[in-house]
Give the backbone structure.
Amino acid sequence: MQRFIIEREIPDAKDLTQDQLAEIARTSNAAVESLGVPYVWIVSYVAGDRIYCIHDAVDGEAILEHARRGGFPANRVTPVVAEFGPHTANV
Amino acid sequence: MTTDDLLGVTEEGTYTRAVRLLERSAEVGVLRAALGHARGGDGSGVAITGDSGVGKSSLVDAVIAETAAAGFEVRVLRAHCDPLDTPRPLGPFRDLELLGAAGDPRREDESRAELCERVYDALRSEPSLLIVEDLHWVDAATVDVLRFLARRVEAMPLLLVLTYRDGEIGPRHSARPLLGDLASLDGFTQLGLAPLSVDAVREVVSGTHLDASRVHALTGGNPFFVAEVAKEPDRPLPATVRDAVLAHTTDVTDHDFEVLQLIAAAPDHLDNRVLPHLDVDLPTLRRLQDTSLLSRTADGLVFRHELARQAIESTIPPGGGPRLHARLVVALETIDPADPAVLTHHAVAARDGARATSYARRAAEDANAAGSHSEAAAFFEIALEHLETRDPEERARLLLELAYQQYMTSRLSEAISNVRATFRLWEEARNHEGLADAHDAVALFEYYNAHREKAEHHSETAARIALDATTPSTYGAARATQGFLAYLRNDLVRARELAAEARLVAERSDLGVLGLRSEVVTTVSDLVSGDEAARATLLTQVETARDRGWDELASTVYSQVASLDVEHGRFRDAEQLLQVSIPFANQRDIPICRHWQTGVRARLKFQRGRWEAALEDAATVIGDDGMPLATLWPRLVSVLVPLRRGEDAELGILDDAWSLAEQIDEPLRRLSVLAALAEAAWMTGRTDHRVSDYAVSQLAVLGACPGAEWGAGHVGAWLRRLGLPVPQLARVAEPYRLADEGRVAEAARAWQLLGDPFAEAMAWTDSVVPEDRVTGIRLLDSIGAVGTADRHRVVLRQEGSVVVPQRPRESTRANPAGLTNRQLEVARLVARGLSNAEIATQLFISPKTADHHVSAILTKLAVPNRRAVVVNSAQLGLT
């Protein structure tokens, strides 16, 4: 599996209510389940006019297929090449 | 090159292929040139036609690809018409992000006219290529928008490309008027695509062992079929295009094949968002990709070609369809916003009556709001067909909705029978108000259908029932309708009584629109009886109605004023009024007024001697399936113009007009037809008992009606010409009175001032002085009434007169009467001193087209230059 960051442009995303986020999550889960390939939605962040999502999938095609089925935009899909944090300093 | 390339798809998505066209270089050249002109602001239209599979979309693909490759800065807008049984209003515009985000392109409460303006503004803001594919499936609202564009395209940076299948747009198709508009454009081209030649087929199958001649004979050179055959060169040759498509599916599992069938059951596309609800996973899509039958667009899965979809659809076993459609309905219901038109399509196919009715009703309401009345009617029909409830009121309401849509699309007889079908239902529900309203509605429809007696009967019934039911608004409305009908048959005493009663109800119950309706009946009764000050009052009432949004009332008042203006010789007033009122009726989509006022304009042009323009309007009303009531004058015009011009006239149409007048049974209508019958009798020398008996015996009675002094004077004049006895008339209009008193020159002058050159000429020819008659004949010749002039020449010769003016030679004859409506419009602007460039801007045409019009006008008016038009504008009747 490969980790991806997906950038979705959604005007006024920052104003989405908790109910709306729950609805989006249900739609996304259904899309994940329907793909028939290994796929994990890790987490998403809402920031300004965008939503940033972290997904694990076998390839970028699966990421796009998930977006189509959910009716979500996927303006930029980028494979994650490394992950690091404060702990990386100690390696 | 692989054979797939021949009919590849350029839709964005996973299955995109490159495109290469064979034997289409001439067509590509035409499109390229047209696009070049469009970029420079000289827009035009191109129609690409041909059978399914001949490569219409591929040609479009190629042009788009070339545009991109050449770095042309042209915005490409590509839209498709809905393949649904009943298309969605403005379906093609939903695909485009031209008017904001994709989806329903209308803004709330936006009229059709406003939407047209918005599309126009969006399109002229930058050079654009607008492609509308599969026009044979188009909806009525889209046709209206495209017609609006077609009338302006010459002055826009736009190339409008339409594709459609040959033979699927017949004379009754809603796209037919659009094709007519386009055909009249200077730069319009139709590209009929021919099948491939044997040589082209040879190129496609090169590298295989297939025999080009055999493949050509089998496929008829249909590029899609050829390509499908060439993709599977090692299989036996398929017998049909269906077999060729199905050959790609031999390795497909049963599960996957069912997915193909599911996609084939969705005629437009299978929305991406329903896939989770249909158990179609990603590995399935990857396997199906190998069939090369599918394509992916931004919206979902589609068949690469309609022929491929049909081939797969044909494999769905009997009884299997409803199950597939039921799955689709349930899946589509999860999508927000759900599209009621699409849901209706699947609910009907799933034989799910409850859903079909409920979605069809919503789709009908959408279509009505978008002004797509033929689609709205179709959806209401579906809703009724599948209605399962036994509630009579619900059925009655749907029937009334359907009837209204049928009225809006000139299907009056059906509208009437549907409203009548509600009578029993309202009775069953013991709903008297509903019953009274239904009678009131059918009263108007019957009147538009030219059955005044039936109209009166229903409006009386409505009033009676409403009185019992004590519903003041319905009672008042019925009384106002009755009053209006009484005015129309010139029974002004009764009209005023009824109007007063309606007004009382309006005041008591505070019903503004009813109050104004009743005032209108009173005022228009004043106008018809000769009180010209009432005209200004009526125009104020129009303004009030327009301000309050009572469009139908406003438009009805326009109709009556315009009609009385022409009846009473106020031609210039009528001209000005119709310039405002016809666009209003068009904009607000009021068919009866549109037809009626266009008919009034036909009469106006006719009386002003504008034969060509009169015929044009008459043909519009008759060809438009106009309401029978509105066709009376158009029928008369379509006989009298050729008769006066000395051409073949279809006299039988006058018999139809007389039957219509008898049916309408109103004095002014009867007088109009009697005058036409008398004129025809005078021209042909035939005896007509309707003239020699009926007209002679009834003229005094008809002429005694208020407002009939012009119509009766006209009939009297023809009776005199025929040598028939003319009854004593209490009152005739001034020019007729002068003629009766033998004051020839004054009568002629009066007609000249009014602007009726034919009546002016006839006033001269009525004289006993030979010189006057020669003057009249010359005048008739000069306005192109050569047929009438010839008749006078015969009479003069029979009388042994020595001075008979020569018939003018065709080539030397000026022909101001031959100006079309468009040319008249241009001529008026020339008379006001506008340059061709200014005229072009004002009329949304190209300067080149303006040039054409102006030179045609100068020729027809036989004047040397435009300055002569300005100087002689009054004489030419262009002020």
Remarks:
- Strands of chain B lie at 44-49, 75-80, 128-133, 158-164, 189-192, 270-271, 294-296, 300-303.
- The first helix of chain B runs from residue 25 to 39.
- Chain B touches chain A at residues 14, 272-273, 275-277, 279-285, 300, 335 (CB under 8 Å).
